[in-house]
Structures are given as C-alpha cells and as structure tokens.
Amino acid sequence: MRYIFYILGVLILFTGLFLFYSTGSKQQIVEKDVALKINDRVITKAEFDSLRSSGYSGRVPLQDFINSLIEKELLIQEAKKLGLDTEESFRRSIQNFYEQSLIKLLLDRKFKDLTPQVTDSDINAYLNLTNKRIALKIETAETPDGFGTEGVRVREEKREFEEFSRHIQTLLLGAGPGSVIGPVYLNGRYQRYSVQQIEDLPNPPEQMDRELIRKLILQTRKELYLSEWLGKLRGSSRIEILLKEDDVKRRVER
Asked: Which residues form the domain of 73?
C-alpha cells in the first residue's frame, strides 16, 4: 500500500507542476503582488510562496529555486508555442492528473480516519514470535466466498516469523497452532491463513525497541484496514471483466 502512495505522489507532483505553471492567472494582478514575470507569464507572491513551501522545494536554496522556476516556465512556454498543449496526449495527462488527485485525496483522508489500537499484549506477542518458525497453509480465492471451491490456490510456507511480510506478521499476532485467519483482502485477492505449526528457534530473540514495534504494527494495521475497506468497496460494486483469456494474453505479449 505504501508503494501505491509513493507512485501516486510522484505522478501528481510532476503532472501538477506542469499544469500549474501552464495555466497562469486570469485575474487582474497588482504590480506589488508580483514575484516573477517571465514573458507574458506572471507569478504572484502568493503563488511563489505556495510553490516554495510545497514538497521538497523549501529545502532548495532560494536562488536555485527561482532559476528552476524560470527554466521550467520557459520550457512550458516553448511547448505551448509548438501547440503541444492542444494534443490528445496533453488532454489525457489532464484527465490522469485529475483522477490521480482524487484517488490520493481519498486515500489520504481514509488513512487519517483510521485509528487502530496497539496494546502491550500485541507487542508482547510480536516479541514472542520473533523466536519462532511458523508453518502456514495459505489459500487464495477471487471472492470471500470462494474458499472450498475448485478455483482456490493453495500453497504451504514454513519460515521464521521475521521472514514473512509485515501484513502476515501482524495478522499472526495472538494466533496459535490450529488458528485460521481471514479471509483477508490483499493485493486484489482474498487470502486465508491456517497456522499448522509453531516451533521454537534455538537462538534467543534479539532485544527490540517496543516503541518501534508499536509503530510498525500501527502502520500495518492501518494498511490492512484500508485494504479491507477497498475489498468491501469492490464487493458492493458491479464489475464485469469482458476480456477473454486470449485477449489478455495478446496484450501481455505486446
């Protein structure tokens, strides 16, 4: 899930800067409010301060930031002279930016609203499992009701607790042999985890910072809750995939 936020952030940053610089202000601007003039493009002090305070721009020396701003504006003006802003690819970039912005805004707000609890018992359970090797049966289905059918994919994994993903580690807290966890919506599919065996490792667990573990569990639970919400959203929607298997294969091979 963090990867999703990272990709969206990078895309929106670059697309947003291009669109912002290319639009210009349509309002009457008073001379004392102007920060920069680049040909016919006027950047107000308010716009300048907003750009300066956004992202990593505030860490760049002021003169370097001004030079970068000027060069970007000159490139945008040249692109507009060539008519690139009227091409279909540009219109698509505007649509993509709009959609990416909506998605990022929604995910950011949803993430802030999540308030999972992490107790001392959770931290103790995590510390206890760091000295264990766990055998899991992992079932994967396309729907939450799809377990027990022919389409379920099953695999078995046996590894040390710290070798599992953060999401599985967090789901295993408080579990024991015979526990069944799920179904859990992750990466577009539903998974169910059956704990088959838990073994002690020969070496004692290393000392770990409890506060660091608390933050790790908190972050991961937020991601799991967000993924669960997305699964419910998908489950309550009407979705049809009309591509045939051959269509998908041809597109992958291109």
From this structure: 2-113
